[in-house]
């Protein structure tokens, strides 16, 4: 009897232990998805904040860049960065420097959120495939693989928010003297959709796709590769215990932004000009051919390149590069550093480099 009682007791204990284990696993099963969702939300918030902070800081230079890109060469208003900013201040006041920034932030917040999150996911997927292909579970992403992950992230983010970028360009270009004015983001979207059709919202999308590959790809690849190199080599004592100072990370972001925008800038000019096609009232600011003040019509990306170079020379592909270069240094730097700082504040353990 005693033996049977012992066996019965052991059986009962075993059942209790099994039930406890099942409950624990069930609890973890419930907790894991909620934790994953929370982590995703935190990552998206960090990316959105990074985009808003970085873009607002350089809004005047962003507007001037677009005005330089599309101004009529036979009616020059903006001759350079300093003169251009002074002209905007004199003719439109302080608010003129930030015209279009609300639209820009409305676009850049989701764009930045999706871009950083997409990069993290693309990096994980590419790293998994790379480790599986090489058979080395300790393999790390190479600069080329980071370029690929950044390109994927840029394409996804740009495609998701492209209509906002299109109307942002038009809102930024219009002035107090424009014959026709869009009243805001939604008015611009509805007007373009009604008068020019849904395809107009994605005009210039193809050169944007091509341009985003080197731009965003190089941004992420250069930034992360520089960080990894500095952490491993520790030149001049810049890295301590696998950590870089905010100043060093800002410098890495500045280098990444400079490389990326220099390579991709001509495509950005073509994209912006193609976005203005169909807006007849933009003739005072969009390029004309000298004989006719109406804006040139482009039949595609190649045609836009050809006509721009033929009428204005190769240098036209780099119009607005100076203010763009000036803004890229703080913009990209602030975006990367703000993203990582906000994730630290929100308690997200994984950074983009991890």
Automatic annotation (TrEMBL):
The keyword Mitochondrion applies. It is a multi-pass membrane protein. One of its GO terms (cellular component) is mitochondrial inner membrane. SUPFAM superfamilies: Mitochondrial carrier. Solcar repeats lie at residues 38-125, 141-229, 244-345. Keywords: Membrane, Mitochondrion, Mitochondrion inner membrane, Repeat, Transmembrane, Transmembrane helix, Transport. The keyword Thylakoid does not apply. It is found in: Mitochondrion inner membrane. One of its GO terms (biological process) is transmembrane transport. Its main location: mitochondrion. PANTHER family: SOLUTE CARRIER FAMILY 25 (PTHR24089). Belongs to the mitochondrial carrier (TC 2.A.29) family. This is Mitochondrial adenine nucleotide transporter ADNT1.
């Amino acid at each position: 009897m005693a033996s049977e009682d012992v066996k019965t007791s052991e059986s009962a204990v075993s059942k209790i232990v099994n039930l406890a284990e099942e409950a624990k696993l069930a609890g973890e099963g419930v907790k894991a998805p909620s934790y994953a969702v929370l982590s995703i939300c935190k990552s998206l918030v960090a990316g959105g904040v990074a985009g808003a902070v970085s873009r607002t800081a350089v809004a005047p230079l962003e507007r001037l860049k677009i005005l330089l890109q599309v101004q009529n060469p036979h009616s020059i208003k903006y001759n350079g960065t300093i003169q251009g900013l002074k002209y905007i201040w004199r003719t439109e006041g302080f608010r003129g420097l930030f015209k279009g920034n609300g639209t820009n932030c409305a676009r850049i917040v989701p764009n930045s959120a999706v871009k950083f999150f997409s990069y993290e996911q693309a990096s994980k997927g590419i790293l998994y495939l790379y480790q599986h292909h090489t058979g080395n579970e300790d393999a790390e992403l190479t600069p080329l693989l980071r370029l690929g992950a950044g390109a994927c992230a840029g394409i996804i983010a740009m495609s998701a928010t492209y209509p906002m970028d299109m109307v942002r360009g038009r809102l930024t270009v219009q002035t107090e003297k424009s014959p026709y004015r869009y009243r805001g983001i939604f008015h611009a979207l509805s007007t373009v959709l009604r008068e020019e059709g849904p395809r107009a919202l994605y005009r210039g999308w193809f050169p944007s796709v091509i341009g985003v590959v080197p731009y965003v790809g190089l941004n992420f690849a250069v930034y992360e590769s520089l960080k990894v190199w500095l952490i491993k080599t520790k030149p001049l004592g810049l890295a301590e215990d696998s950590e870089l100072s905010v100043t060093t990370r800002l410098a890495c972001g500045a280098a990444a932004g400079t490389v990326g925008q220099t390579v991709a800038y001509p495509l950005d000019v073509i994209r912006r000009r193609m976005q203005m096609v169909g807006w007849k009232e933009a003739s005072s600011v969009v390029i004309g051919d000298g004989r006719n003040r109406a804006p040139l019509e482009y039949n595609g990306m190649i045609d836009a390149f050809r006509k721009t170079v033929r009428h204005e020379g190769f240098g036209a592909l780099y119009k607005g590069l100076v203010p763009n270069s000036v803004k890229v240094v703080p913009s990209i730097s602030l975006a990367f550093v703000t993203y990582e700082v906000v994730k630290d504040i929100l308690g997200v353990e994984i950074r983009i480099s991890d």
